[in-house]
Each structure stands twice: as structure tokens, then as C-alpha cells.
Specification:
By secondary structure, the protein is α+β, with helices and mostly antiparallel strands. 38% of the residues lie in helices and 25% in strands.
């Protein structure tokens, strides 16, 4: 039988409830029949359900990195709780009788193989083609390239035209005076924001929605916090519009409409494919990443949830973020990500353009347990000084288009309490006041309840550095503590 871990099952589950329900089915003896093929690549179970007939569920590992799950139940979740229950049966070493591959599975495997062969044929190198195939492939490729270029040119021109709407909003507010936002005509601006979607400007559209939300809140309660947030968004919108206009004009002038390694592509609303990131030279192969922290927040401006994982490359110590976006209107159909307490071994990954903690993505990963050697590697990448990191962090945060935080690993001598809160003293004696970022779950409240005083001294802290606008100073929110044996999360 194959070897799987509970962490792998949780990573496959569409949500925590599905995994929990699958585990309960297994624990309560929900299967009346369990079978597997002699090569241990196909597992089949007959499971009792709420319907008249039992459900037939299977896990096909003919492609070990991409298992296929099938079930006769009517659930729209994938994998369903019965498929997950079957995995728990494998995990718990239940007895499976040997069987042959069912005819319907053979047909489905053959169909998948035919699709894969067709894709492989399309990707066959020119050197392996016949002359006729080569000519046909080159004509098809040239035609596709021409169509793609025309589409990209049209999109860039449309975006350039749409930036006028962004300027109309920002200029209108600035010319009227930001002190008048309490009486700003929101309906007029909302109509302009809606139009941005027609110009492929989903990035500026999201920022403008955020601006209108802050103005609306300010009009309700008069809080200076909303006024300050509106100013920050206006700065970002102004910088994005100015830089994007120059970026698009240069691309059109140089007839260079292809994808390039530029942050503005995504900021304007572009969506990268993994293959495109690799073509842009941002790919990496055979890497191992450990998740250091995880959190979920709701972006009211984009009307979506963002599941955020913080990962470290165990080879070079680079810290990345990955995002799983779940628009509210489709939240039922998109799998919610969850904390990963192990290490992801990844064959292919790619990092997005940008500054600070870059966004990363991969399609498939094998999850293994975190080891003491992994913890030692993570700790070795931590800086012994806050002062040595502070200048670079401040310079990055000054960029209007930068993330609101920079995440770093810091070796600390001690965590103490002062009149203003908790202070972390680094190995070299430099220190920083810890705090909680706006709109992030509070973690400093968990410092007093850490499971052992030893965690307050001589460990490594994962910290999110940010600029506190109220007290005008750089602060850091504690996310996780890395010891010799484990990662203790304050946020997960």
C-alpha cells in the first residue's frame, strides 16, 4: 500500500469540514468493502451513505503526484468526504482485498492518457516532427502568436484609455480638497469605478473601491483613521496611474506587447499563468518550502477572501507568500486553503515580479513532515540584528506600490514587557516594539500564554515589519516562533 500522511489528506480536502467528516466516516466503520489493485495504485471502497444505495468511491494513484478521486455520491465537493474517508482507511492501514482494475476505471484512464498524448503531441519539438508536421505546426504557431499580439495590443490601448477614469477620480478629490471627502458625491465616483472593469483595470478598480469604502466610513463616523487610509490609497492610485501610463506607452511605442517581468502587469489586473512566469525566467525546480505562518482575511474592496501562506525556501532562506483568492460570489465552489504544518516538496514553482516578500505559486506538491534538520535550516537564515534589516525594510515600505509589511526571521535574545507593550531584543542588542497590524488578527496577546518561558529567550521569531502611522515608527507583529524542534504559530 502507498504511504500517506494526515497532512497530505488535509491538503487535498476542499475544506476542514470535509476532512473532518471523512475522518468520522472512517472511524465509525462506514465502509462495507475495501479493495486495491496488486500494484497499490488504485483503491476502491463501498461506503454507506444517506441514499438508498451505497456509494462507490476510488482513489487512483497511477500518477502519484496527481491522484484522481471518483465517487458515485451527488456531492459537488472535490474530493468528497467519502473519498477522504477512503484515504483515512489507507492511512490507518485497514485491510484491502486485492482486485482487478474495473472496466470503467480502465476507460477513464485511457481517455486521460489520450488527452495527455494529444497534449504531448502538440508540444513535440520541431526536431522530432516530419516535414509536413513541422510546416503545419509553424503556421499554427505563427497564427496563434499574431492573434495573441493583436489581443494584447488592443488590451493595452484599452487600459491606457481607462486610466483616464482613475485620474478623474483622484484629480476630482484632490482638486476639491481632501478635507471635503465628508461630502464627496459617492454615487458619481461609484459609476466611474464600475466602468473600469470594461477597460481591464481590475487592480485600480479594487483600489478605487477601497477608497470609496474609506470615504463612506469617514462620512459615517468621522474617524481620522479612515481619512488617513483614504490618503494612502490616493497616493497608491496616483503612483500606479502615472507609472502604468508610462509603462503602457513605452510598450506600444516599441511594439513590445508581450509579457515582461514587471510588477505593473499584475497591479493593473493581469493574471499570470505558471507557464508564463517560467517563460519570463521566474521558474524554479525541485525546491522544498516550509510553511511558517497562515492567515485568512477579507478584502472588502475586492469582495473576496484571501487565504495567505507564508513559506520559506529551505535552500536559500527566501521568504515567499502565496495567495488563494475566493470571491464571495463563488466562495462555495473554491477550496479554502488551510495551514500546512509540514514541508512541501515541489517539482515546479515560480515567483511573481515585485519587491519584498514575493508571491509564489505551484500546482502540485508532496507534503512531508517537518524535521529537526528543517528547523535548524530555518533558524540558520535568521538575522541576529534588527538594525541591519531596518533600513532596507523602511526603503521598501516607502514605495507606494509595495506591500504594507515585510516579513523577516530574527534571532532574539529576549522578549520583555514595557509600558507600551512587548519588546523584542535581537541577538546583537538592537530592539523593536511589537504590535498588531491593522486588519490583522492580534498576536501580541498570545505572548503571555506561550507554553513555556523558554520561548521568551534565545529563539527565532518570524515577524511582519510595518510602519505604524499613529506613533510614526517601525513596529513588528510576531507571527511564529521557530525552535530546534518545531514551529510554534501565533497566527494560523
Amino acid at each position: 500500500m502507498i504511504e500517506i500522511t494526515e497532512q497530505q489528506i488535509l491538503s487535498l480536502a476542499p475544506n476542514a469540514n470535509a476532512a473532518s467528516n471523512g475522518k468520522k466516516i472512517s472511524q465509525k466503520g462506514g465502509f462495507v468493502k475495501l479493495e486495491r489493485t496488486s500494484d497499490s495504485l488504485l483503491y476502491v471502497g463501498e461506503c454507506k451513505g444517506s441514499g438508498k444505495n451505497n456509494y462507490i468511491t476510488s482513489a487512483d494513484y497511477i500518477d502519484r503526484a496527481n491522484p484522481v478521486f471518483r465517487c458515485s455520491c451527488p456531492s459537488r465537493q472535490f474530493p468528497c468526504k467519502h473519498s477522504l474517508a477512503l484515504l483515512y482507511e489507507i492511512l490507518n492501514k485497514k485491510e484491502f482485498t486485492i482486485c482487478e482494475v474495473p472496466e470503467d476505471i480502465i476507460r477513464k484512464r485511457n481517455k486521460k492518457l489520450a488527452r495527455d498524448n494529444k497534449a504531448a503531441e502538440a508540444a513535440k519539438p520541431l526536431s522530432e516532427m516530419t516535414e509536413e508536421e513541422r510546416i503545419k505546426a509553424e503556421k499554427k504557431k505563427a497564427s496563434a502568436a499574431k492573434s495573441a499580439k493583436n489581443a494584447r495590443t488592443k488590451k493595452l490601448k484599452s487600459q491606457l484609455e481607462g486610466l483616464a477614469l482613475v485620474d478623474k477620480i483622484t484629480d476630482g478629490l484632490v482638486m476639491a480638497g481632501m478635507g471635503t471627502i465628508g461630502g464627496a458625491p459617492l454615487k458619481t465616483y461609484k459609476d466611474l469605478v464600475k466602468q473600469m472593469g470594461d477597460y481591464y483595470l481590475t487592480g485600480p478598480q479594487r483600489l478605487c473601491n477601497g477608497l470609496l469604502i474609506e470615504i463612506a466610513q469617514f462620512q459615517k463616523d468621522g474617524s481620522e483613521e479612515h481619512y488617513d487610509n483614504a490618503i494612502d490609497i490616493l497616493k497608491k492610485l496616483h503612483a500606479l496611474s502615472k507609472k502604468s501610463r508610462q509603462y503602457i506607452e513605452d510598450k506600444l511605442a516599441n511594439d513590445n506587447t508581450g509579457l515582461d517581468d514587471n510588477l505593473l502587469y499584475e497591479e493593473l489586473g493581469g493574471i499570470w499563468k505558471l507557464s508564463e512566469l517560467e517563460e519570463a525566467g521566474r521558474g524554479m525546480e525541485n525546491k522544498s518550502f516550509a510553511q511558517l505562518s497562515f492567515w485568512i482575511d477579507f478584502d472588502a474592496a475586492a469582495n473576496q477572501y484571501a487565504d495567505t501562506g507564508c513559506w520559506i525556501n529551505l535552500e536559500d532562506g527566501q521568504i515567499y507568500l502565496n495567495y488563494n483568492y475566493r470571491p464571495l460570489k463563488a466562495v462555495k465552489y473554491i477550496k479554502q486553503e488551510d495551514s500546512v504544518f509540514g514541508v512541501a516538496d515541489v517539482q515546479r514553482a515560480a515567483a511573481y515580479p515585485g519587491d519584498g516578500n514575493l508571491r509564489i505559486r505551484w500546482d502540485n506538491a508532496q507534503i512531508r513532515d517537518l524535521t529537526e534538520d528543517d528547523c535548524a535550516k530555518i533558524k540558520s537564515f535568521a538575522s541576529p540584528s534588527i538594525n541591519s534589516e531596518a533600513k532596507a525594510i523602511k526603503n521598501t515600505l516607502k514605495n507606494a506600490l509595495a506591500q504594507p509589511m515585510i516579513i523577516k526571521l530574527i534571532q532574539y535574545k529576549e522578549i520583555t514587557k514595557c509600558d507600551y507593550g512587548f519588546v523584542l531584543e535581537a541577538k546583537d542588542g538592537s530592539s523593536i516594539l511589537m504590535g498588531n497590524m491593522p486588519q490583522m488578527e492580534k498576536t501580541t496577546t498570545r505572548i503571555p500564554i506561550l507554553p513555556g518561558k523558554y520561548l521568551l529567550k534565545d529563539q527565532v521569531m518570524l515577524m511582519a515589519f510595518y510602519y505604524n502611522k499613529k506613533n510614526h515608527r517601525l513596529q513588528a507583529q510576531p507571527l511564529s516562533i521557530i525552535t530546534d524542534k518545531q514551529i510554534i504559530r501565533l497566527l494560523y
